[in-house]
Design goal:
With 397 residues, the chain is of the alpha/beta class. It folds into two domains: 14-254, 3-Layer(aba) Sandwich (Aspartate Aminotransferase, domain 2); 258-393, Aspartate Aminotransferase, domain 1. The protein is built from 13 helices and twelve strands. It has helices at residues 14-22, 33-53, 66-84, 99-107, 128-138, 160-167, 239-254, 266-280, 307-316, 336-340, 345-348, 362-382, 390-395; strands at 2-3, 60-63, 90-94, 114-118, 142-146, 174-177, 194-198, 209-212, 285-286, 297-301, 319-320, 351-355. The strands form three sheets. The protein has a seven-stranded mixed β-sheet with strand order 2-8-7-6-5-3-4, sandwiched between helices. Helix 4 (99-107) links the parallel strand 3 (90-94) and strand 4. The longest helix has 21 residues, at 33-53. The chain is globular and about 60 Å long. The chain binds pyridoxal-5'-phosphate. The site of pyridoxal-5'-phosphate has 15 residues, from helix 3.
Amino acid sequence: MAYLDHAATTPLRPEAAAALVSAEFGNPSSLHASGRAARRVLEEARESLAGDLGVAPGSVIFSSGGTEADNLALAGIFRARRSQHPDRRIVVVSAIEHHAVLDAANALRAEGAEVVELAVTGDGRVRMAEAEALLAARASEIALVSVMSANNETGARQPIDEIAAALAGTGIPLHVDAVQSVGPGGDLLPATAAVSVSAHKFGGPVGVGALILPTSIPCAPVTFGGGQERSVRSGTLNVAGALSMAAALRAARSNPNGTAEQGRSITDLRDQLAVTVLAAIPDAVINTPLANSLPGILNVGFPGCEGDALLMLLDAAGIQVSTGSACTAGVPRPSHVLLAAGQNDAAASSALRFSFGWTSRQADVAAVGAVLPDIVARARRAAGAAPLNPAATGLSR
Ligand code: PLP
C-alpha cells in the first residue's frame, strides 16, 4: 500500500503515541492531587509547544483541532472587534482558504459582516497588490484579516510576512491558518498573529489543536462553560492530547523526514514524483509551485480525467491520494482553490493531490509510476474524452 495523503492526516509518531498513554490521569481544573498532576502535565505540554513554535506559552489556547481554532479566530475576533468598533464589519480572507475559514467567515454575514475575498495569482498566491489596495481604501472598516500560511490543496506558500508588514501599525488583527505548515515545514509563526494549528497534521492525535492567540488580540468566547483557557475556550482540557501534540511537534521538528530512506527528504520524494508523473503523462499539469511550496504536497491536473475517477482507480491499485482536500472529497465540485487560480471547471476537476509525510518511502513514488499510465488512460475513457496522451494509450489494457 502507498499512502500518499499525509496532508489529510499523517500517522501518529511513536513519540506521540508514547506520550498519549503516559499522561497523568485527572481533570486539570480539579484542586486535588490528581488534578494538580494533570495541570502540571498540561502546562509542560503548553510550554514545550510554545517553545517549538516560538510563541509565548500564555498565548496557547488548546482546541479540538484546526477547524475549531479557525472558527474561534474568525467568530471570536470579529465579535470582539465589532463590540469595540461597530463600524469595522469587513472580514478579509483569501479565496483559497480552507472551508473552516471560508464558511466561518460567511456565517458571520448573519451578524452584519461583509466578507471580502482576496484573489490569487495563477500559481495560487494571494495578490499582494490587491490586499494593499483594499487596505488603502477601506482599512478603517476592517475587523480582521485571515490568510493561510500555505494552501492545503496545492501547497503554495502565501506571502504572510508581507501581509503582516502591510497590517503593522493599522491595529487590524491577522489570523493565519498554519494547519498545513506547522510541523515538517518548520515555519516560524508571525509573532503578532493569531495562528491555528492541528496535531494530526504533524504526527499527533486527531482531535487536538490550538489557537495561538496573543493577548494583544481581542477575542470573544464562542463556547461557554467552565472558563478554561482564559475564558476563551471553555471545556475540560485534553491533557493526554496536548502532551501527545507537543511530543509530535518536537519529533517533527527534530526529524522532519521520518523514515524516508537513503537520506532522501520529503521534498526529494515529492520532486521525484513530479518527474515520474510528467514522464508517464506528458500533458499532466503541475499545479504546485514547486519552488515556493510546502515540502510534501504535489497537486497535478490530468487533462481529460475526473479526479474522483482517478482517486478510485488508484485506491483499487493500493495507492491512496486525495482530490483537492479530504474535507470536501466526495462532493462532486471542482476545487475552489484551482478555480480561484484561474482554472476552468474541467481542469479544476481533474486534479489529484499527492502528499508525503514522515512514513513516505521511495517505493511509494515507484508504485505511482508503475500504474499511472494505465489508470489515466482508463479514467480518460471513462470520462469519454479522446485519449490525449498516446504513451498512456499504449499502456492501457
Ligand atoms: N485548515 C487547513 C488548511 C486544513 O488543511 C485543515 C484540514 O484539512 C483544517 C484547517 C482543519 O483541521 P482539523 O482537521 O484539525 O479540524
